[in-house]
Amino acid sequence: MNVVIIGASGYSGAELASLVAKHPKLILTGCYVSQGSLDKNKLLSDLYPEHLGLLDQPLLPLSESAFSDIENSADYVCLCTDHKVSVDLAPRFLAMGKKVFDLSGGYRLASNDDYVTYYGFEHQHPELLNQAAYGLAEWNSDAIAAAQLVAVAGCYPTAALNALKPLQQADLLTEQTIIINAVSGVTGAGRKASIGTHFCEVSLAPYGLFNHRHGPEIEQHLGHNVLFTPHLGNFPRGILETIYVQLKPNVTIEQVTQAYQVLADEPLIRLLGDKIPSIKGVAKQPYVDIGWQQQGTQLIVIAAIDNLLKGAAGQALQCINLSMGLAHTTGLKGSF
Ligand SMILES: NC(=O)C1=CN([C@@H]2O[C@H](COP(=O)(O)OP(=O)(O)OC[C@H]3O[C@@H](n4cnc5c(N)ncnc54)[C@H](OP(=O)(O)O)[C@@H]3O)[C@@H](O)[C@H]2O)C=CC1
Ligand SMILES: CC(=O)N[C@@H](CCC(=O)OP(=O)(O)O)C(=O)O
Fold first, then answer.
1. What CATH number labels 2-131?
2. Is 187 in the pocket of ligand 1 (CB under 6 A)?
3. I need a surface site. Which of 8, 142, 168, 190 has the fewest CB within 10 A?
4. ipTM of the shown complex
């Protein structure tokens, strides 16, 4: 299959380009940036010298002639662009009959009202929202395989949902709000320079209190209230979430461990039991690591991912694999 990447100069786009270039069944046919991009016509490997020899292709401006080239050459289009850009671009590629994998949040929520409330814009294509499959690979594989539009799950939600869905499915949770404290590395904020991600300014601090868009994304796809607080940490990549859960009375650690067995055969999920996941364990790896400890009815679950792999490009590639009927892990294990 021929794959093009829009937004290939960004952190998630470049990560995905490297995965596609190494994949045994995919061909990277084009890497695009905006028409006015300062990086247009540079080589991707000029921006990311670690990919010298692998990604020596130019970053092409997404002009009208580029759309024709994509129409003629691509099977799959991956949007590694800002939410609003993705909302506008997806219908254009869908109308060409392309399968679209959107790494942004542009098609993850259920209704236009959610976009107004949590993203601050009116959704221009609300009719597509119920056609998009939510790209949480381990939990929605049939829908992902069948859909023309895949809304690849958000980075923080990927860790939280894999940590919590087993408990929800086993009916171990009370109604009490689940508290999720999460820390992300700075690549989570994208490549564009800003004062908030400046080397000298980044410190460990929370942000987006009560209003981060990943709170509703987790709630919608879990079916449970959460209080989600992200933090920005002074490290490049990785997400660690500490999640506080109130269990129903008399739930035992054996029942909790049994609940997680639903993920035991998933090759990109590592169940650590009472061992504690860490950023070091997942950075540059395609896995979700999940660990848990219980005291009485209180359970603390810890989940860790690499935000650019399982939180973005890795999971997008997993969704592509599902669309092609390949194993989840094709092009993902042993390629780092
Ligand atoms: N970083 C992360 O950890 C994660 C990111 N995501 C999501 O993935 C998307 C990309 O994120 P990230 O890689 O961090 O972002 P970056 O800011 O690093 O990259 C954005 C890319 O989009 C390009 N771009 C901007 N405007 C346009 C346009 N109109 N047409 C074509 N290309 C355009 C940029 O290039 P230029 O401006 O030069 O044109 C750049 O290549 C976002 O929606 C983000 O929310 C999802 C999960 C995790
Ligand atoms: C550290 C940081 O800023 N992280 C980003 C989340 C990563 C991302 O791009 O979000 P999506 O998964 O929804 O696409 C943020 O909080 O907005």
1. 3.40.50.720
2. yes
3. 142
4. 0.98
